[in-house]
Predict the 3D structure of the following.
Amino acid sequence: MVQYAKRRESMDYIIECMHNIMESLTNKELTSFGGGAPAKEAYPIELIRELTQSVLNDEEKAMQALSYGATIGLTTLRKAVQENLLIPNGIKANMDEIMITAGGIQALYLVCKLYLDPGDVVLVESPTFVHAKMLFDSFEVKCQSCAMDEDGLNMEDLEAKINRYHPKLIYTMPTFQNPTGISMSAQKRKHMALLAEKYDVIILEDDPYSEIRYSGERLDPIKTYTDSKNVIYANSLSKIFSPGARLGYIVADSEIMKDLVDMKLAIDTCTNGLTQAICAEFFNGGHYPSHLGNLCNIYRSRRDVMKKAIENHFPVGTKQTSPDGGYYIWVELPRGLDGRELLPVAIEEVKITYGSGSDFFVEENHEGSQYLRLSFAGINEHVIEESMKSLGEFFKSKQ
């Protein structure tokens, strides 16, 4: 048998982690807090049905939606992103600096494709987004983790590791980070922008949850603090429109964007035209503000119920983060409880699954097994309350 590329072997462990997460979302016998699916109530199904019909009833729009399109993306959607998502958040970008991608993961992939060679160093947060870790493994790069504080990356550790490892890229999710829910302070965002200029390193700012804020003050993206080409902003429309539409976007300097477009051209020619057209209608029809308000109301309530239930039912000494938005609460179990070892037991005994914290660290021997990532987004309040009670009692029984 012809041998697979070496990158496949290096991805074995993380592929298993991702399969476990994705399978938990579709196993109807389990209550899954492990994945990151939106609430069922967050899908604007009737509206999308109407918008789809509107696009298909307009001959010009229908032909544009169903034909090959520009690799950089549909003009109407890029304009909608600029007006509804970038300008309100302080990002100044011309139309030739915005590209529509096939989901947020493709945005990350294209940046990696453009910049990373095997053996290059990427600095990541500790813990970090498990899918980004999978992506970096596929490019055969060396990930080095940087310490996290309660307000985001530890800047002293970050700068020390820039000097030590000379990374080509720094990957960060500064707002409602996946998996911790932590948000980086404004001061640290400004500091990171300065580091990008000082050390001529690319900062890949991944921001898929920033719109879903239901408490606290809005924070400007890192990209707003510098005119440097070195900060590339990536985002997704999955959490605020539909994950199945597979839409995301990148914002980068026009010279860099030309090369990113070339990378995309080599992969899939263009992003799905029909979903782009429908999404453009969604924004341009003025539907986004009320839809976003509805999302935030749903997730605020579910976060509050989960936080309270963890406080009431988990073992004494359990710690948890308190996110102002996004989907996740990061839980630290008391010493002696191993979340990774107990996961298959929890699945068997209480039919509940969660994100094993050790999956989110890049070091193979990291002692992160006492952590859990719990997603409250896709589950209603009653089930959250009952499940956290069952899970808490389960962990107490294992002490």
Summary: Residues 22 and 35 are 7 Å apart (CA to CA).
